[in-house]
Amino acid sequence: MGTASTQLKPTGKQRKQDREKSDVKQTLSLSSSVTKVREYKVPGVKYVFYISIGKSGRFWVSDDDGNLVQTDLQGNQLQKIQTSGRSVGYHTVIQCGDLIYTDQDNKVINRITPDKTITEFIKTGDFAPLSIHSSHINGDILVGMINDGEPSKVTRYNKTGIEIQNIQRDYKGQGLYSYPHYITENINGDVCVSDRYSGVVVVDTSGQHRFSYTGQRSGLRPRGICTDVLGHIMVCDAISRTVHLLDQGGQFLSLLLTEQQGVVNIFPRSVCVWMMNNICGLENLTT
Question: Which residues lie below 8 Å from residue 58, measured CB to CB, with a gap of 6+?
Fold first, then answer.
C-alpha cells in the first residue's frame, strides 16, 4: 500500500525567515569582498588617520597633526577644529549626535555640540585617554588609556560620563594592553582593541579575555578597527597594507583591499562600517 505525501506551503513566518536567511548569505558574501563605490579627498586634513560616522550623511575625519574636520558626502568642509589628537582613534559620535574626543595632553574628554560649542565632558585622572568609542548597544563610552606607572586599560563610562568599569588585566593578573590606540565594540558586546604592540585584544562584556589576534605569517601591526552587522572584525595592518577580516571568535577569514582586488598604492589607516555592511575606508596614498 503506497504512502501519500503532502507538501505543505510555507507560512508567512517561514517565508520571512527564508528571506532573512537569504539576506544573511548575501551579507556574508559582501563581507568578504570589496567594491570601490567612491573616492575623494577630505579638505583640511593631510592624511586620514581616523573616521567617525555621524548623522545625516556627515562624518568626522582626523589626521596626525591634530586637525579634526567634519565633512559631508560631497566633500564639503562643515567644521574644523585644532586638537592635540595624534594618529589614534581619538573621536566618536555619541547617540545624541554630539562628537566627543580625547585630549591626551590634558587627560580629559571634550564634547562638541551642534552649535559648535566645546565643553569638558570627562576627566580621566592619572590616565591619558587615547582611543574612544560610543556603544551602539547602550550608549556606553569605551576609552583606551595609558599611564607610565601602570598597565594600560579600557574604561567604560555610561552616557552621562560616570565610570562604571575598568578592564586592565587577564585572569592571571597580567596586563591586557600595551598601547590601545583604536577601540570598537562587537554586536555581542565584546570590546575589541587594536593595540599597537599586542595585536587585536578582545574581551567580553564582563572584561574577561576572549582571544588575541597577532596576524598571519608576516605578523600584524594593527591600526584602525571596526566590526560589521554579523560580528566580523576588520583591522588595518601596516605590514601587509591590507585589512584583515576575522570572525567573531578571532578566526582569520580573508584579506580585504589587496592588489588582487585591484587596490594599489594605499596604506590603510582607518576603516569603518556604515549603512548595512558597506565599508567606508579612507586610506593614505603612498608615493
Answer: 70, 71, 72, 73, 78
Residue in the structure block whose three cell numbers are 570598537: 184
Catalogue the E-assigned strands of 160-247.
163-167, 180-185, 191-195, 199-203, 209-213, 222-227, 233-237, 242-246
- Residues 225, 244: Cα–Cα separation, whole Å: 9
Which of 198, 178, 134 has the alpha carbon at shortest distance from 160?
A: 134
What does the buried/exposed string (b/e) look like for 90-110 if buried means 16 or more CB atoms within 10 Å of the residue's CB? bbbbbeeebbbbbbbeebbbb
Among the listed residues 217, 283, 281, the one whose alpha carbon sits nearest the alpha carbon of residue 37: 281
Q: Which of 233, 238, 239 is nearest to 31 (CA)?
A: 233
Grid cell locating 210: 576572549
Kindly state the average pLDDT of the residues 81-86: 92
Which residues fall within 8 angstroms of residue 226, CB to CB, at 6 or more apart?
184, 233, 234, 271, 272, 273
Residue 17 CA: distances (Å) to CA of 12, 23, 35: 9, 10, 28
- Strand, helix or coil at 91? strand
Q: What is the pLDDT of residues 237-253, one digit of tens each?
A: 999 999 999 999 999 99
**pTM of structure:** 0.84
Q: What is the rounded CA–CA span in Å between residue 214 and residue 190? A: 18
